[in-house]
Design goal:
single chain; alpha+beta; four-stranded antiparallel β-sheet; 46% helix; elongated
């Protein structure tokens, strides 16, 4: 692979930012991607709207926001997996995500078919 780890991480962050804006209608404040062995770990900051923060003050609202946001991401994950496969030349074998309703951060973990970090 001709690209450096930093270049790949930047490309992944750019693709996720674009996906957020086109699929979800708005992007996060910042996106940071890290390649760690056979995983790509992405931290998206500023995911929640002010209204969602307000709703999250109660347990029912918190669970509702987490469920809805996770459903939205899961419904569009095929497009993200395909983009990551194109960038890394590896298959994405699994995907994990969670959202903090306190910090407004989303963590995404993409498990790849091989150790990408050792190839760079």
């Amino acid at each position: 692979m001709d690209k450096t780890k930093g270049v790949l991480e930047a490309e992944i962050s750019k693709v996720l930012t674009h996906w957020e804006k086109t699929y979800l209608g708005r992007g996060s404040v910042s996106v940071k991607s890290d390649i760690v062995r056979d995983m790509v770990v992405v931290v998206l900051k500023g995911v929640l709207t002010p209204a969602e923060y307000a709703v999250c003050q109660e347990k029912e609202g918190l669970l509702s926001v987490k469920e809805m946001r996770n459903s939205l991401v899961e419904s569009g994950v095929i497009e993200i997996k395909e983009a990551l496969s194109t960038i890394t030349d590896l298959e994405v074998v699994s995907f994990y995500t969670d959202l903090s309703t306190i910090t407004g951060e989303r963590i995404m973990v993409f498990k790849l078919s091989e150790d990408l970090q050792s190839k760079l």
